[in-house]
Each structure stands twice: as C-alpha cells, then as structure tokens.
Amino acid sequence: MATLNPEPGDLSRGLTLNNSSGISLDSYSLSTSGREGPTTYGYSPAVAAYFDVHEPEHQSRHPANQRNERGRVVRVDRNLVLTAVGRELLHLPYPLDAGVPVTGDWVWIGPNRAGGRQITGILPRRSELSRKRAFEDSSEAQVLAANMGVVGVVVPVDRPLTHNRLERTLVAAWDSGAVPLVIITKADLADTADDVVGKVSLQAAGVDVVTTSAENGDGLDALLAHWPP
C-alpha cells in the first residue's frame, strides 16, 4: 500500500490541507475550495514552488501562448488517467511523448487537437515505488506510484506470515525514497497477534510498526500519528 500523502519535509501536507488552512493557491486554476481538487490530494505552496522551478523547461517544449493547468494523477485506467484538476476529477488522455503517468504524479494539463484537454508533461518524481514485472525477462521495473511520503506495508495477522514476501516488500519500500511503515491489521482476530508483532518487528528492524484493529479501533491513533496535523 502506497499512501499519496503526506510527503515529509516539503512536498505534501496530506489530506488535511484545505480552505481552512488559510493558504492561497491561486495559480493555474488550482483552488483550495471544493472537495475534489488537487489540494485534497496534497497540493501545497511547496508543490507550487516545485512546479515553478520546472515551468520554464516545460514551457520551452510547448507553444508560448498555451496555458497549462496543474493537477495530480489519482488513478490510471489503461490509456486514460483520472486526474484532479482545479475543482474537478477528469479522465484525461496522455501522449506517449509526455511520458507514462502513474498514481501520485504531478502533471501539467493542456489543450489537445480535438479541443479537449490532455496531460502534456509530468513533474520530476521525488519518490517512486516500483517492482519487477512478473513473468517478463525485461530488467525494466514497473512503476506503481509516485511522490509518496509513506509506503505502508500491510501485514494481516490472520494469515500466515511470509517472511520472503515481507522482506521483498520492505526493500521496495526503502528503495522508493519514501518512509516505510509496517501496518499490522486485524489484531483482534488472532490469538497469536503478539507473536506476529514480535517476528515482524525483528525482521523490520529500523521501521516503525503499528498494530491496528478496525473492529475495536486499536492502534488507529498511532497510525494517524504518522500523518502530519
């Protein structure tokens, strides 16, 4: 599980950043009002500044009079991308020369030849969760998500603990550039929960481990503590 928000340090404050924060985001049709805009998915003044740094390079590859909006990829559906733009969620196409977007990408949106809108560029990624493609000889990794601050590795205690899989997942989380977090779930369903927690904590040395139960609410405050206020 890769969380889109928050990214520690500078790029995202998570789902709580909204109109009540008093932050003005007035460029390129982004708005702090509305439930579905990019602010809901982590747009902040720091992200705006990151866009500004790369704006000249992006503009150099497009017509000078072309107005580019900013948005964030929420989900990828084959050749269409669900993107938060302004106060809207839109399914947008993307040309291959713009790169292949993934969930979490910050993108520029501009006009297409049909008079609609499309993704015209992808902001350089600050973190990237990837894996090797199954059953393929290619050494190229498949990118699953981008610009995460936290990668949650979910371990349900009501299933056998697969140490090799946990190790592979932790390596991928560390390699992403984000902060790994092990989330042990369904702690109320197994008598061996303490044993699982001990084994996971030993294998995931150096990684925070949170034990949760959605049934009785245990551990949820500790989980939320890994998100900024």
UniProtKB/TrEMBL annotation:
Residues 122-226 form the EngC GTPase domain. GO terms for molecular function: GTP binding; GTPase activity. One of its GO terms (biological process) is ribosome biogenesis. SUPFAM superfamilies: P-loop containing nucleoside triphosphate hydrolases. It comes from the Bacteria. Pfam families: RsgA_GTPase. Signal peptide: none annotated. InterPro entries: P-loop_NTPase, Ribosome_biogen_GTPase_RsgA, RsgA_GTPase_dom. Keywords: Ribosome biogenesis. Gene3D superfamilies: P-loop containing nucleotide triphosphate hydrolases (3.40.50.300). PANTHER family: SMALL RIBOSOMAL SUBUNIT BIOGENESIS GTPASE RSGA. This is GTPase RsgA. It comes from Pseudarthrobacter psychrotolerans. The lineage of its organism: Bacteria, Bacillati, Actinomycetota, Actinomycetes, Micrococcales.
